[in-house]
Amino acid sequence: METIYLDHAATSPVHPEVIAVMTKAFEQTFGNPSSIHTAGRQARKVLDDARTSLARAVGAKDTEIIFTSGGTEADNTAIFGVVNMLGSKGKHIITTQIEHHAVLNACEKLEKEGYEVTYLPVDESGLISIDAFKNALREDTILVTIMYGNNEVGTVQPIAEIGQILKEHQAVFHTDAVQAFGLELLNVDELQVDLLSVSSHKLNGPKGIGFLYQRTGTPLSATFLGGSQEKKRRAGTENVPAAVGFAKAVEIAQSDMEAKVAQYEQFRSTFVTVLDGEDIEYKVNGNAKHSLPHVLNISFKGMDVESFLVNLDMSGVYASSGSACTAGSIDPSHVLVAMFGADRDELRNSIRFSFGLGITEELVKEAAIRTAKIVKRLAK
């Protein structure tokens, strides 16, 4: 039985071309970029080239890119780095109820330290209200952190509109664009963001590396202390092979972005068409007009997410839910709770399928057929 990996929103396989350039870097570029001898300078050149390429991908300057260990560190650096610098100007932060836990847990920690956090609600499609945002904004707001596209249901927020509202405000604007990078054209000037987080492993690059974009002049304190790497913003010897691989992954992603987006949208259509043909009762969660193309979150009537995921796994279809499984129990997804409330069926019967490298139309059809068979069997 052929296995079908439909969990690319969780992590993605590394592209063969990325593996090739990383292998070359491991073999030939072993110097410490901070060393002044030839091997060090060679490593610095390779690192700088990768940084320039990544900066160009979001319309930034190379000096505005801070390499991190991934999206979580980038989010944490943005949040704690800003409040450490601006805490004297206010204690208010605005975020949303559907952020990644890298943001939510950081905000929870700050609440315990005396900061006030407004968690904007979302509608049933996962979208915030601009009016609610305007009403939440205060003179003492120092940070707004709102994700670009949701990792569970794919809903895309009105980031550029928020950026315009904040143009004359003291608040620093951060967006977690981890799930969107490589599938959406992100330009930091058009979005009017001050800070932007991305991660390599979501777009067929290596795990363990990401970056934080920091607009020139944006106040940000270092969260790692040590050497003077990353212009004293993030201490630690840089991971040159990973940076090279990250840059290559982004180059590949941006070279065929339009075609890939169209393909993933077709996959979404194909999947639900098969379900329709099998007379499966379902509902697609998220926003139909403003959504990431590779995420398909579906609620199946009468199903239980725990047994559903086990059966999918046994049938060779690898998908996921936003629920946290601990010791045989499942805590509902905080994203779905925010969208639907605490007592809705969607909290217990929603599965996320996400597409990426190596997936074909035939595999999508086969995955949908296997899914339909499981729904029918469990319904009995």
From TrEMBL:
Keywords per UniProt: Iron, Iron-sulfur, Metal-binding, Pyridoxal phosphate, Transferase
Gene3D superfamilies with a match to the protein in the record: 1.10.260.50, Aspartate Aminotransferase, domain 1, Type I PLP-dependent aspartate aminotransferase-like (Major domain)
Class in the EC hierarchy, top level: transferase
Domain Aminotransferase class V: 4-364
UniProt keyword S-adenosyl-L-methionine present: no
Cofactor(s), names only, from the UniProt record: pyridoxal 5'-phosphate
Chemical reaction(s) catalysed: (sulfur carrier)-H + L-cysteine = (sulfur carrier)-SH + L-alanine
Any one Pfam family match given in the protein's UniProt record, by short name: Aminotran_5
Transmembrane regions listed in the UniProt entry: none
EC number: 2.8.1.7
KW Iron (keyword) present: yes
Family to which the UniProt record says this protein belongs: Belongs to the class-V pyridoxal-phosphate-dependent aminotransferase family. NifS/IscS subfamily.
PANTHER family according to UniProt: CYSTEINE DESULFURASE, CYSTEINE DESULFURYLASE FAMILY MEMBER
Protein's UniProt name: cysteine desulfurase
